[in-house]
Specification:
Pfam families: MFS_1
Helix content: over 70%
Strand content: under 5%
Protein name: Major facilitator superfamily (MFS) profile domain-containing protein
Distance between the termini: 44 Å
Number of domains: 2
Low-confidence stretches: 1-15, 21-31, 467-488
CATH superfamily of the largest domain: MFS general substrate transporter like domains
Shape: globular
Membrane topology: Multi-pass membrane protein
Structural class: mainly alpha
Number of helices: 21
CATH architecture of the largest domain: Up-down Bundle
Strand order of the largest sheet: 1-2
GO cellular component, one term: membrane
Radius of gyration: 23 Å
Subcellular location: Membrane
CATH class of the largest domain: Mainly Alpha
């Protein structure tokens, strides 16, 4: 088969390195692991869908004033158009992980594509057809809610897609590309929304601009996605397809000490990045920085994050140093967070603020896809969607808690001559110090207490070179694994 030729040279190299004692049946088995060009279409489709859903999420945030005028509501209600994505994702996360591991990748993605399209169309049609101002906001909110229902179906998929369609030496970079398409969509919304909706009358054009790609992507998903997995597996773990049942997988994760440490500490990192993205403009305006400069810093945060994630994904694919990469980058992210909490309090330091935002994104965003792969490695044979989904839930819950606490710690300033915030001027000094301290604490906990074996890689190695077929070992509890590592 032509599509399987691209890994033939690699297979021959690996076969030449196999010791003479390995049976010929194992060499034949190794040759059966083919990859298909179709995997790049599946990856592209997931990237487009992830990017489109992110643009629906933040369509109105960059043009909140114009949106409020068009919908005839206050700014608080406009903010709910974005917050609904966070609230809907938390209760639906477990259902989504069940769908991915039980129903399959194809049905999950197609359902996500249809919900994403219907949400985008309902927003546009509600604004275009309904002339009653009071009815516009409810219809737009319903459209946003449909988009929010699609988000977990899409954002949980990269790890599962990479495991089913890509070989072990391409999984990390495939996961990285698919995961980073979400912040790319955020960046596009931040740039395109202000360009399109310069006045409230252009909000209709804005919603149309985001609805058209959603319809095209839904058509591509429905017609082009023909199966959840390729005809032949790309790796030994994909061939086995021996994920634990959903409920049993949840129980195993809750007994896995390494996974719990990763879920808590990396969830804290997700929360810190969410707070940074959400509160950036409010933090910087106190020291006289304009909204335009805050937008530039947000763009640098995302762009450098995508660059860092791509570079780290390539490195990890070649070295398989998941633990080392995560620990180093999480530590550097904590230092960048502390640096931002200090620099953001200084007026007229645009270069320093922009540089720190770039570093925070470069080290912080690059952790996400690698940590998701690490979650699969330390929890195998639990399903990929289940292990990565619980981490996402941890991040969403901690994000909500952090936002509440940080805003409660702000203090109204009596006088701030440099402020560009308007009437409400809040001091973010204490909240930012607390954020930096909490992030640093969980980074230290991760560096000191996270230890694990790469269970999926070990199973694949055994299946490829060993005499026994791949099996589904039950991940040890934290105490059992810790005892084995101490003995070793």
């Amino acid at each position: 088969m032509e599509e399987g030729k691209e890994n033939r040279d690699e297979v021959q190299t690996v076969c030449a390195s196999v010791p003479p004692g390995v049976p010929n049946t194992e060499l034949k088995k190794l040759l059966s692991f083919k990859v298909y060009k179709r995997r790049w279409f599946v990856l592209l489709l997931l990237c487009l869908l992830n990017c489109s859903n992110a643009t629906l999420w933040l369509s109105f945030a960059p043009v909140a004033d114009q949106s409020a005028q068009f919908l005839q509501v206050g700014l608080e209600q406009v903010n709910w158009l974005s917050v609904v994505f966070m609230l809907v994702a938390i209760p639906l996360s477990l259902a989504t992980t069940w769908m991915l591991d039980v129903v399959g990748l194809r049905i999950t993605l197609i359902l996500g594509a249809w919900l994403n399209m219907f949400g985008a169309l309902l927003r546009f049609l509600g604004a275009e057809i309904i002339n009653i101002h009071a009815a516009r906001f409810p219809l737009v909110m319903v459209g946003q809610t449909l988009g929010a229902l699609a988000q977990p179906l899409i954002i949980f998929t990269p790890t599962k897609m990479a495991a089913l369609w890509f070989p072990d030496n391409q999984r990390a970079i495939a996961n990285t590309i698919a995961s980073m398409s979400n912040p790319l969509g955020i960046l596009l919304a931040s740039i395109l929304s202000p360009m399109i909706a310069q006045t409230s009358g252009h909000i209709r054009d804005l919603m149309l601009a985001y609805a058209v790609p959603a319809c095209i992507i839904c058509f591509l998903a429905t017609v082009g996605l023909r199966s959840s997995s390729p005809p032949t597996p790309p790796s030994a773990s994909a061939e086995s397809a021996c994920s634990e049942p959903f409920i049993q997988g949840i129980k195993l994760l809750l007994k896995n000490r390494a996974y719990l440490v990763l879920m808590l500490c990396f969830g804290s990192g997700i929360a810190a990045f969410t707070c940074f993205s959400t509160l950036l403009e409010q933090i910087l305006c106190v020291q006289g920085y304009t909204n335009e400069f805050a937008g530039v810093c947000g763009a640098l945060f995302i762009v450098f994050g995508i660059v860092g994630a791509g570079a780290l994904g390539l490195i990890v694919d070649k070295t398989k140093k998941f633990i080392e990469a995560t620990k180093i980058n999480l530590s550097l992210s904590a230092l960048a967070c502390i640096a931002f909490s200090v620099v953001s309090l200084m007026p007229q330091q645009k270069v320093a603020v922009a540089a720190v935002c770039s570093l925070f994104g470069f080290f912080g965003f690059s952790i996400y896809p690698v940590a998701m792969e690490l979650a699969v490695e330390c929890s195998y044979p639990v399903g990929e969607a289940t292990s990565s989904g619980l981490i996402f839930v941890s991040g969403q819950v901690q994000s909500f808690l952090y936002m509440v606490v940080l805003q409660a710690l702000t203090k109204r300033m009596a006088d701030s001559p440099l402020s560009t915030c308007g009437d409400a001027v809040l001091s973010w000094k204490v909240p930012m110090m607390v954020l930096g301290g909490v992030f640093s604490f969980f980074s230290c906990v991760f560096v000191l207490f996270f230890h694990t074996r790469y269970l999926r890689l070990e199973a694949e190695e055994q299946a490829t070179y060993g005499a026994k077929p791949i099996h589904c070992p039950t991940p040890e509890s934290g105490s059992e694994r810790e005892g084995k590592e101490t003995a070793e």
